Amino acid sequence: MCGIVGYIGNKEKKKIILDGLKELEYRGYDSSGIAVMKNGKLDFFKSVGKLDNLAHKINQFSSDGFGLAIGHTRWATHGKPTEINAHPHLGQYSCVIHNGIIENYQELKDKLNKEGVNFLSQTDTEVIVHLFEYYAMNLPPFEAFKKTIQELNGAYAILLISKKDPDTIYFAKNAVPLIIGKNNDENEYYFASSDAPLVSLVDKVAYLDDGDYGFVNLKECKLYHQHTHIQPTFVTLNQDKSFAQKDGYRFFMEKEIYEQNRVLTEVLMGRLQGDEIIFEDIDDKILENIEEIVLCACGTSYHAALSGAYLLERLAKIKTKVEVASEFRYKEAVIGKNTLFIVISQSGETADTLEALKIVKAKGVKTLAICNVDNSNIVRLADISLLTRAGIEKGVASTKAFATQVATLWMFAIYLAQKAKFDMSNEIKALRSLPNVVKVNQNLHEKIHRISKRYLHGHGFFFIGRDVFYPLALEGALKLKEISYLHAEGYPAGEMKHGPIALADSELFTVALMPKNCLYEKTKSNVEELAARDSTLLAISPINFDLSDDFIKTSNQEHYMCEFFEMMIILQLLALEVSIRLGNDVDMPRNLAKSVTVE
Predict the structure, then answer these.
(1) What DSSP element (H or E) covers 182?
(2) Most buried among 58, 69, 489, 509, using CB within 10 Å?
(3) DSSP assignment, residue 495?
């Protein structure tokens, strides 16, 4: 979603802000802006499109010497992507940047309109700066800021600077990430909406909690939590910046597909011990008397959840259902006290998933987070958490995050099954081979590259599979949609004859997942029905299928989950190669954001 970077100090601020925003490009954005306060003068610049456009605008601008700077990349929620709607938003003598959504902005806007305040943009953010200046007419700046924050309903990470206090940055955080960074030996402070912009710039960071607000100047960092003064807790920042390099790959997404064998090794590390799954993060008391598991997630994480549901019921014999987080929030779901509610999120900040977690927490339900980001809101709110260890994923279309989520769910299912004294020896054996299964074979990649040229047209794609391969089909279709902009749908293979097969003809492409170890004959029968209706078939299987127009032969795996992960790699590479042939920006597909922190 949107990105925030801030700085107070003596260094060249333009470079710090632009470099920081570059590190946040993977989150998705449509416009950007920067504001600098120096010697009581406020300069600001905005641009639509890529950050290069903003960099060009401020090429001749100098901002060294003491001052303040705030920068923002925006992904439109209220108002179209225009320079007027881009952040920062200005009042008469102040400006603000904001991630999130102010739910009562119209009410506040109406109130300010009656006071003679004029608005330039269509955004919800602009009310913040005008509300601040409205209260600052009669109150000191920090008191005005506090009163402003008290009136805001919704999600926000806010940085505000004002000529009334030109040496200070005001900040506030609720339901959207915001981090303060500092160095032990330098008199300066940094802000960012994730760790990435702060790597190599700061030694320590403080992760703000919901309800935190305060101000920073060179004399002090004042932090308040729900109106109580507290001391900020600074922790050492991991300085590994290798994720920011493509290592010779064409796109971050391609690099991340190839990284999956290393990443899955790290997922297993310390957890697969001998013939047993060990989760040191889990207090087994929380699992006592669990009669049902509910998995809740959005997007790719939802597909991982669907995969996990098959595994939890099959291996652990626990009743499991899956909820779309954006629907769960409003369905007034009945959740029993003996339910374990599992939320899955790559970022740990997904708005709908976070709100679903808050709902069940209020009901006293036991909760577990499966997440990639430690210190995220979801991890901090859940009773217990399992980190997926995927590392930073810069491609907007998720690859290694999905792989690590499914692997973690598989391990958790085995863990519960072993607690119930079920024999998991076959699962452990398969799990141990997983890193090698996802290692990309260059000959395979080259074949997918050659095949991809035949899948650039037509009126759509069916991705089909049965059992756990159905959610993999959903994920394969989503990957293709996200980066190629071609229409694709995932279906249970057995559902073809219940309506969708009416679309079958030579211009409909079917990608069929046909594993040897999971309902092969049933799936084969479904695929034959499509072949009889002249659908163009790409079959993925270890068993030759003569009716296919294209065939990708997989390894002769002994376990269906090893087939699952091998086919996952193939689907990711297929989406990548089709998208590249179509000339798309694979890492930053249109209209999408990496971390969806609003509804």
Answers:
(1) strand 179-182
(2) 69
(3) G
CB atoms within 10 A of CB 468: 24
| Structure tokens that stand for 387 in this block | 């980190």
CA distance 206 to 472: 38
* Inter-residue contact 315 to 356 (CB < 8 Å): no
Helix (H) or strand (E) holding 37: strand 31-38
Q: How far apart are CA 504 and CA 526, in angstroms?
A: 13
| Whether 307 contacts 473, CB under 8 Å | no
Lateral strand order in the sheet of 366-371 = 319-324, 292-297, 339-345, 366-371, 384-387
Q: What is the DSSP string of 56-71?
A: HHTTT----SSEEEEE
How many whole angstroms separate alpha carbon 133 and alpha carbon 290? 53
Integer Cα distance of 101 and 124 in angstroms: 7
Longest Cα pair distance anywhere in the chain, in angstroms?
80
For residues 211 and 231, is the Cβ–Cβ distance under 8 A?
Answer: no
pTM for this predicted structure: 0.76
Pick the closest to residue 81 from 44, 24, 23, 121 (CA basis).
121
pLDDT lower than 50: segments of the chain: 244
Buried b (16+ CB within 10 A) or exposed e, 348-375: bbbbbbbbbbbbbeeeebbbbbbbbbee
| pLDDT score of 244 | 42
Model pLDDT, residue 496:
81
SS (H, E, C) 504-530: CCCCEEEEEECCCCCCHHHHHHHHHHH
119-123 own/partner pairs: CB under 8 Å, 24+ apart: 120/84, 121/79, 121/84, 121/85, 121/89, 122/78, 122/79, 122/80, 122/84, 122/85, 123/78, 123/79, 123/85, 123/89
Chain position carrying tokens 């401020």: 58
Q: Is the peptide bond before 500 cis (omega within 30 degrees of 0)?
A: no
* One-letter amino acid for residue 433 of the chain: S
Please state at what angle helix 400-419 crosses helix 299-311, rounded to 10 degrees: 30
Q: Which residues pair with 492 in a beta bridge?
A: 465
Q: How many CB atoms sit inside 10 A of residue 238's CB?
A: 10
Q: Active-site positions?
A: 2, 594
Is residue 512 left, alpha or beta, with left meaning phi > 0 and alpha meaning psi from -120 to 50?
A: beta
What is the rounded distance in angstroms from the CA atom of residue 482 to the CA atom of residue 480? 6
Q: Which tokens hold the place of 319?
A: 């009743």
Cα angle vertex 361, ends 356, 363, to 5°? 105
C-alpha to C-alpha distance for 117 and 134, rounded to whole angstroms: 9
Q: Which of 544, 566, 536 is nearest to 445 (CA)?
A: 566
DSSP letters for 518-566: SSHHHHHHHHHHHHHTT-EEEEEESS--TT-SEEEEPP--SSHHHHHHH
